[in-house]
Amino acid sequence: MEKPETIEKQLCPMCNTNNLVMVQEEIEIPFFGKTFVFSMTCSNCKYHVADVEAAEQKEPVKQTIEISSEDDMKIRVVKSSQATVKIPHVTTITPGPASNGYITNIEGILRRIRYQIETVANDAEDKDEKKKARKLMKKLNKVMWGDEKLKITIEDPSGNSAIISDKTQTSKLKTK
Ligand SMILES: [Zn+2]
After folding, report:
1. Span from the CA of 10 to the centroid of ligand 1 (angstroms)
2. Most buried residue, 71, 85, 97, 132, by CB count within 10 Å?
């Protein structure tokens, strides 16, 4: 692995101050290959973008995994900004300008989702909406403890995403 390359004091496109730090790193991910991880973070306005890109050109991909134990929390996940992460009956993470790419594990994905649902639960004025959000949080906790199964699908037309496990089912992603 090479050392992360850091370029400091760059011009931030959001607040126009020279507080942007760019970081690029090259990581070897088993069963996925050499991957570039890059990010831009502004210490002044908190602007942050990050993404991952495989060194080799990849095919559009659709991968599904069924989470069934606490051990599954450690399964590595590469999620690019182009990825759609679908968890039936829970949520869908869609690509877009606000979507970052990152390398995490199943637990990391679930924690992010739980945080979003928690925000909804706290902000919701509608009682039913609050109740529904609380129920989802309970469900996610159970999944994290290995007490409940959950299916996660990741679709990425750029191919720069993967769920790295023997249990992962890969199929062709149909692109329009
Ligand atoms: Zn800024």
Report:
1. 10
2. 85
Give me the CATH number covering residue 7.
2.20.25
CA of 15 from ligand 1 middle (Å) equals: 4
120 CA → ligand 1 middle, Å: 27
Cα 12 to ligand 1 centroid, rounded to whole Å? 5
Q: Which tens digit of pLDDT belongs to each residue from 56-104?
A: 999 999 999 999 999 999 999 999 999 999 999 999 999 988 899 999 9
Distance from Cα 52 to the centre of ligand 1, integer Å: 22
Same domain, 82 and 21: no
112-167 per-position pLDDT tens digit:
999 999 998 899 889 999 999 999 999 999 999 999 999 999 999 999 999 999 99
Contacts of 87-96 with C-beta under 8 Å, sequence gap 24+, read 87/113, 87/150, 87/151, 87/152, 87/153, 88/151, 90/136, 90/139, 90/140, 90/150, 91/116, 91/117, 91/136
Domain of 52, in residue numbers: 1-56
